[in-house]
Write a structure and sequence with these properties.
Ribonucleotide Reductase, subunit A, globular, mainly alpha, 364 residues, 16 helices
Length: 364
């Protein structure tokens, strides 16, 4: 009897064990805590939630377009190849590409889970350890959510892409805690926030939009944590140490901008891989979406003070320097408010008729 599996590649074939070196910081000072970090820690405790009850898992995905995303977001849309495809072929491609994207979210969140546990171990101040501990459970919840989404709704899981694995390998092998945060929370999760936003704002499927809105609400706190801690830490570094971190950021962003492209889904969906990749390389939609993914990274990097000539030149080359003008604080507050709106709609829907629900939201 053949047992079907959702994994494109066997998970065992992708097992990854690393021997890493890391420092452990223990503080015996319990009364010198900073108010901003303690306030964020309090918020992190208050905003914990259960993915099994807050998310409406009874909702199904659409057979032809699981998350209800516009076809214009598919990087071969409008090409001769796309125009030749049948309705069923397009439906199959949508499923594979969307599952690939959510799979990268899943793998990135596991990376964040490991990194946050290391930050608890490595960061020196106790107030930072307090908050990082709340983030560990956040990241565990995100892994739970995206794993359930893929297994129950898509029935399809793609492996970790090489550029993301390369960056995680670099992060895990650094002993300095701030490199862990730079690579994971600023770059990888910053890139993910841009992707989450595209789904939250464009998905017609309520489950897909809801999941990403709620994850983004957590991530808004995570970015605030990094900004607080790194803004305090980086002025203490020498010019050489700052340059090393700017070089790391520039290389990481170049890696993701140039190589973070789906390769397996085309063949898995029955399409000619080389032809698809050639279309993707020339796709204006791909370039636009890739640029948008950096809208959270650039203003955060500027905010924490790693804004020397090297990093500005790298971002100008990538065509993303304009995002330095983004108000990252206001953007993160909008992420929080967007999640609250989903809660309001859910609560209103439980009050009675759809008209009663609409009235309840309007009255808030």
């Amino acid at each position: 009897m053949t047992v079907s599996t959702p994994y494109v590649l066997s998970p065992e074939s992708n097992d990854w064990t690393l021997e890493t070196r890391q420092e452990t910081a223990i503080s015996w000072e319990y009364d010198g805590n900073r108010k901003e970090l303690l306030s964020l820690y309090g918020k992190g405790k208050q905003e914990q939630w259960d993915a099994a009850t807050r998310i409406d898992w009874s909702r199904d995905l659409d057979d032809e377009n699981p998350m209800g995303l516009p076809d214009e977001m598919i990087w071969i849309w409008g090409s001769d190849l796309w125009n030749r495809m049948t309705r069923s072929e397009r439906a199959n491609l949508r499923r594979h590409l969307q599952a690939w994207q959510i799979s990268q979210f899943l793998h990135g969140e596991q990376g964040a889970l490991i990194c946050c546990a290391r930050i608890v171990q490595q960061v020196s101040s106790l107030d930072a350890k307090y908050y990082a501990a709340t983030q560990v459970i956040d990241e565990a919840r995100h892994v739970e959510i995206y794993s359930r989404f893929l297994h129950e709704k898509f029935g399809l899981v793609y492996p970790l892409v090489p550029p993301l694995k390369t960056l995680l390998d670099e992060v895990f092998n650094r002993k300095e805690w701030d490199f862990v945060y730079l690579g994971m929370q600023v770059v990888i999760e910053g890139l993910a926030l841009g992707s989450f936003q595209l789904i939250r704002d464009h998905a017609a499927n309520p489950l897909a939009a809801q999941i990403n809105a709620y994850v983004m609400q957590d991530e808004a706190r995570h970015v605030a944590f990094g900004r607080l801690v790194l803004r305090d830490y980086y002025p203490q570094l020498s010019d050489g140490e700052r340059n090393e971190r700017e070089e790391f950021l520039a290389e990481a962003c170049h890696l993701l901008a140039e190589r973070f492209v789906p390769t397996e889904p085309w063949e898995c969906a029955g399409l000619p891989k080389d032809e698809c990749l050639a279309i993707v390389a020339a796709s204006p939609a791909m370039k636009y979406q890739h640029h948008r993914l950096f809208s959270r990274i650039v203003p955060t990097v500027k905010d924490i003070g790693l804004w020397g000539p090297k990093i500005r030149a790298a971002y100008e080359t990538l065509g993303i320097l304009q995002y330095q003008r983004v108000d990252i604080g206001a953007l993160l507050e909008r992420d929080h408010q967007a999640a609250q709106k989903f809660d309001q709609v859910r609560e209103a829907a439980n009050l009675g008729s759809p008209a009663d629900g609409v009235a309840a939201v309007a009255a808030r």
